[in-house]
Amino acid sequence: MRITLHRGEILFRQGDPGTYLYRIVSGLFKVTRLHENGNIVLFNILYPGEIVPHHSLISPKDCHGTSIAMVTSEVERIPADAWYEELRLNPDKALSIAKLLQEKLRFMQQRIDHLTIGAPGERLQLLKKWLDSYTNEAPLTELLTQEEIGQLIGVRRETVNRLIRQGGS
Known about the structure:
- The protein is an alpha+beta fold.
- Helix content is 42%, strand content 24%.
- The protein contains six helices and eight strands; from the N terminus they run E-E-E-E-E-E-E-E-H-H-H-H-H-H.
- The protein has helices at 80-89, 93-116, 120-135, 140-143, 146-153, 157-165, and strands at 2-5, 10-12, 20-26, 29-34, 40-46, 51-52, 66-69, 73-79.
- A hairpin with a 5-residue loop joins strand 4 (29-34) and strand 5.
- Helix 5 crosses helix 6.
- It is elongated and about 55 Å long.
- 27% of the residues are buried.
- The mean pLDDT is 93.
- Pfam families: cNMP_binding (PF00027).
């Protein structure tokens, strides 16, 4: 079943029992985690082609974070029971799951490369360029807060504010 979510709408919440898996058809989602001390950390961005939650592709587990649409997005909702039954009946499906996880690992490696390259302004431009490829060049600050941008490029919110004022986004 396909569903459409608009900017700010929640796909799944931290602690949800994982009744469904989701195939991202279009759009982008940010995934945040609320820690016991009250800090909210942006730890992932989901993009078209992914099936999530990643940690539940082989076996069920409660959702680790909250997924929020960054732009209007389309998602295929997959009942978890049907997913796991198909996996049980078709062991070859494990290879397709491994390929999905490999792609996400490569994305994460790219994000780490972006965190370790050059100056903060360069990291900000790399993030903007990547997001532009999915968002029709929507302004970065309409997609993410300055705090979230800072988490993704490894700087404090104040530094993001300064970079944006200097024309970095």
